[in-house]
User: Which sequence fits this backbone?
């Protein structure tokens, strides 16, 4: 389960969640920190990542284009990196369902 964390999420999430989401990356670490969403989308598609973001743009793109890549939209206001980590750990089963379902394109986490 490879996640590509968007720039609105902490790069620390990569190491904090490495036990359940190995091989994940952050856009900053792959040279896409200031890149347009279309570049992030294409990188994720080519490298088989699921995009995870607090921004609705990727969710909207998934509605238009479908997948790959799949998208996880964290629809929550200001919260700490530890809150995001806990949320993803608590919902790892839902994330696995998304990734295993060939018809699913996105998951919204509240």
Assistant:
């Amino acid at each position: 389960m490879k996640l590509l964390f968007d720039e609105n999420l902490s790069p620390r999430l990569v190491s904090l969640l490495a036990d359940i989401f190995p091989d994940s990356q952050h856009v900053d670490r792959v040279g896409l920190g200031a890149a347009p969403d279309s570049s992030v989308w294409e990188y994720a598609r080519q490298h088989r990542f699921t995009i995870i973001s607090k921004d609705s743009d990727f969710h909207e793109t998934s509605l238009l284009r479908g997948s790959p890549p799949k998208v996880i939209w964290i629809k929550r206001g200001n919260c700490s990196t530890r809150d995001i980590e806990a949320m993803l750990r608590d919902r790892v089963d839902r994330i696995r369902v998304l990734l295993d379902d060939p018809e699913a394109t996105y998951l919204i986490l509240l």
The chain has a mean pLDDT of 96.
